[in-house]
C-alpha cells in the first residue's frame, strides 16, 4: 500500500521493516520512486545522508543524475491500452522508444 511504500506504518520491536526502511537504511538505494496508477501520481525521493528527501517532479518528470535518465508520466497507447504510463526519457527530454516503437 502507499502507506507502507512511504514507510508510514508503525514500527515495533517485532515488526518486519517496511520497503522504505529496507531501501533507505539497509540497501541505501539512491532513488526511491513511487507511481500510483489510479491517481497518476508520481513521487520520488533521493537519499541524502541517511534519509530520503522528497524530490519535486518537473512537468511530471524526475531527473536521475547518476543514470542520466528521466522518469516521467506519458499519456498514450501501450499494448492496446490508453492511459498514463511511466516512461524513461533522455537528457533532451525525449521519450525513449520501447521495442514496439523502434
Automatic annotation (TrEMBL):
It comes from the Bacteria. Pfam families: Uma2. The keyword Lyase does not apply. InterPro entries: Uma2. GO terms for molecular function: endonuclease activity. Keywords: Endonuclease, Hydrolase, Nuclease. Residues 18-73 form the Putative restriction endonuclease domain. The keyword Chloroplast does not apply. This is Restriction endonuclease family protein. It comes from Lyngbya aestuarii BL J.
